[in-house]
Amino acid sequence: MTIKISLTQFLTFNSKISTSARINCVDNIKNGPEYFPGLDYWKQLRDAIKITLKNGDNISNILSTVNSVKEDKRANYLRVANKMIHFINQHEVEYFETGHAFWEFEDELSVSASPELGLKIDGERYLLKNYYKKPNSNSKVTKSNIKSTLALMSLAKYDFDANTSKLAVLNLQNGKLSTADPVSVPTKLALNIDAQNFINIWNAL
Prior knowledge:
It is built from seven helices and nine strands; from the N terminus they run βαααααβββββαβββα.
């Protein structure tokens, strides 16, 4: 049976800096509850960001979402909202619609790679994946650590024309944008190795 995961889950796996952290990550994905909107910690903020940008409204409007969530979420929501506001306010930004995408490895792993946002930033089109998770000592979301995730985004199959857009991850831990480079042979090999490692850990659990 093909293992099906999200791009966020694969990115989180790739950000782990030790074998034990990777094992725990896969264990949480495999044995945790299946996704449904009520369990999506960031859904309200994710929806607010998309609607605000789509409507061309002031990005600061997303702060209203911070006040509408449960108190135990507010500090994390405020941190991420402020990073998003700062990033958007540094650029000329225009929203555009996107579609869906996926990447498969050896008929064993399927990763949903659909962009979260289509944004024209300072005149350049980007297909963005936002990364929301709270920083922790077991992970490091830098371009070097998530290079294979960026390669996956580049190699995914899209149901729309993605050739005119850059692929990127917006890390909302620090507000930095990491853009995919052309996929080299070593980078593709690293992606395949990461995918195989994920499968091996999954099957061993």
